[in-house]
UniProtKB/TrEMBL annotation:
It comes from Catenuloplanes indicus. Keywords: Membrane, Transmembrane, Transmembrane helix. The keyword tRNA processing does not apply. Pfam families: CbtA. InterPro entries: CbtA_put (IPR012666). Coiled coil: none annotated. This is Cobalt transporter subunit CbtA. The chain crosses the membrane at residues 12-32, 63-86, 98-118, 138-157, 169-191, 211-232.
Amino acid sequence: MGAVTLGGVLRRGALAGVAAGVAASLVAFVVVEPVIERALAVEEARTAGEPAEEALVGRATQIAGGMVAALAVAVCLALVLAVVFARVRHRLPGRTDFGRATLLAFLGFVSFALVPALKYPANPPAVGDPDTVGARTAQYLSLIAAAAAISWLAVLVRQVLVARGQSAPLAVTAGVLTGIAGYTVLMLIWPATGGELPADVPPQLIWDFRVASLAELAAMWATMGATLGLLLTPRSPRAVRPDVAATAA
């Protein structure tokens, strides 16, 4: 990456974001939307007999808007990932930029998706108290910031041990254990969401939605890291054609 400027990294990050957004949108359309339809059916059954309120936008528009939003979020996150990669590349383990980029994306998935999903799992439309949205959003965002700090601490622990002459396996193990311990502490000390799940929403529906939502985020981060890594990987020099070599000789 030595010859790639920050602008070059950002351009590659933007392309990685587009690819990640497309991947996330496809997973959302194929996997998440059917679960949402089941949740909406529960919600409609709950309000059956009440005066129907006309929806501001139709389902098709909502689906299209959700896919566009996923694309926009992926591009924004990929640009952040590219900037962070450019700043901390020398601190990341790995022999290639592909390995470093995919590791950084994995840490992003753990910090921005996995840890928050374990503490505050996503709920389908028929679940959740609208009056607590503000408080839940604050808890969610603060947990992401704390998880990102833990991820960075794990990287630093590994780097310090390597600088002190410790073996690579020992340094990596210490970094991983630091991350696991830190994430566990966050899970224990962060406030719970509170509230009970509605009795008319099947537990299987809630579970399916949470797994599907996490799969969408996993697809986004995996595609983002792999694409950025590939775009940062220098192309192999072209093989010399036999006829050209003979002419040169």
